[in-house]
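Ticket #4471: structure export looks truncated?
Reporter: QA, pipeline team
Priority: medium

Steps to reproduce: submit the single chain below to the structure queue and open the exported record.
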Amino acid sequence: MEPDPFNRNCGSRQILDRIGDRWSVLVVLTLADGGSRYSELAGRIDGISQKMLTQTLRGLERDGIVTRTVYASVPPRVDYALTDLGRNLLDLVAGLEAWATTHLAEVESARARYDAGR
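Actual output as written to the record:
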């Protein structure tokens, strides 16, 4: 059977759900320049709760997009980094970021027009 993201039971839809999630996008973008510690990710991504960051990192790790490396030190140190698969995804996610920042004013204007007509 061919992958079909329009079919709710297809695994490709789960992948789209993961990579289309706002927190996943922001984690991937944050890891673009190399590995980061949990606290660095939490500090960079404004508004993400510890619970959501943990869930997002686990999901990205499960999907093979992020690696988690634990170093035996006191206190324990954990680094997160993009895998080859994650780096492959980075161009697409960076394109979304570029589109959003380039077209922000247009979207805000469209929202204002829409809201004024309601």
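Status: closed, not a bug. The export was complete when the record was re-opened. Leaving a note from the reviewer for reference: The radius of gyration is 17 Å.
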